[in-house]
Amino acid sequence: MIGKYDPANPANRVRLTPRWAFSSPAHALAVFFGAGLLRPAPGTWGTLAGVLVYGLLYSFIPTAGWIVLTALLFAAGCWACEKSGRDIGVCDHGGFVVDEVAAVWALCIALPAGWGWWAAAFAAFRLFDIVKIWPGSWIDHRVKTGFGVMLDDLVAALYAWAAIQILLALYWSAGRLAA
Known about the structure:
By secondary structure, this protein is mainly alpha-helical. The chain is 68% helix and 0% strand. It has 8 helices and no strands.
């Protein structure tokens, strides 16, 4: 089976351009206003854009607002990825990064505030988004819709949150043992 990011994958021959990205609101949202056009590793750039937007606007938007914005971005991302995927003939193009943004926002909401926590969210989310542990891998391979594009990243965010919680618990228990 050819991997999603494998150069041999025919989907990776479809090059997204700024002209294409800004030709439609769906396309612009799918590439998160250009972040998905950056190379290499557009998913990493999309995640970074998500963390930066979250961090820069955190003080101005209450948690309830972030929850609503994230849910709206998830729903709009389902539509944008579905339409954009149909338009280029590739369901889950690597340049579609709105899924990373919505997922990392969900993860940041679930963590304490601060750039250190948001950096941890970035690193843990990228790890689990790339590794794709079940059921994320199953969703990625089988649910070929805009909803599937968005959902597998939420699963990665859930694993990232769990990993951060486990590391935090280990850190605190190690500190108690040393004291």
